[in-house]
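Field reference: sequence -> structure
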Amino acid sequence: MVARLGGPQALDHTARETKAFVRPREIRNAVDLLRLILAYCLGEQGLRLTAAWATSVGLVDISNVALLYRLRQCGDWLALLVGQALASAAPKRSRGRLIRIIDATTVPKKGRQGKTKNEVFRIHSAFDLPRERFGHFELTDQHEGETLDRVPAVPGEIRIADRAYLQPERMANLIRLGADFVIRAGWKGARWRDCAGRALDLVAELRKAAKRGLIDRPIWIKPRRGAPLAVRLVAIKKPQDAAAAARRKAKLAARKGGHTLSKQTLEAADWVILMTSLAPDDFPTEDVLALYRLRWRIELGFKRLKSVIGLKGPPGADERSARPHILAHLLIILLLEPLVDELEDSPRSAQAA
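Structure field:
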């Protein structure tokens, strides 16, 4: 891990630059500091036992209070190391196009009495294919929303996202930057228009195509400002069992929310509805559907982050220590991802990528 982060001298330089490590006292160098911080953040021993472990193995004789102080000084350093790890693994341009799956996951903040409140940290992420690696992280609180263009665009990339990212202005921005997208949509997720600018009933379009079970046609979305955005509607009717499950889920959500479920919502539940900027001559219907089916890969990435790496809610409420705690986990998954095929019981096949 030290080698992948540039070696001891590079770690020492970045630690001093960010004031995480100023001069050797109890802790001799930046490598020992990183080892100490990761031992606490990735373990479940707490401050006292981690400090006792560090003394017992001869790493450093430090108190739990001093360890907490060191942790609070490491936020900017860990953020810098995460940035370096992302940059070193940046995708190289090749004949194939970069596919970026965009999503966010959350970890809870800790309450004053140790109870989890509704407040969370949100980790905005991009998962790059075919490399099968996280290509972007941004850590915010719950007040920062999920936006399609938060992750810097790479010209030529294809960005895949769920329905929370159906944002016309940001979709137009991606196109201006030379990127394309495939985004899941709900039947009332936008103001739909036809080629003449008239309001379009999307559910009525689904009804017309019910027998065929497939739609691939131009459609326009009216943003809050500016001209309608021309995109491509690709929709496919779900298999009978999947449609029934989607209807049950919609009914359950309506009961929990205390509202009446509309007939249109039930009809739309039978369909997978996608919006894309990809040209039909280059990406036929089947290819667009296949691209969106890749979205589950980021869910596997989040699962590894939380179950294998062990990312949970930070143990304390103070953001000075909570932020480095989360960043330590993000750093570790970036360092371990190149080894994931060797660590997993069933490595991914080359064809799956």
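Note: The chain has two domains: 8-86+317-343, 87-300.
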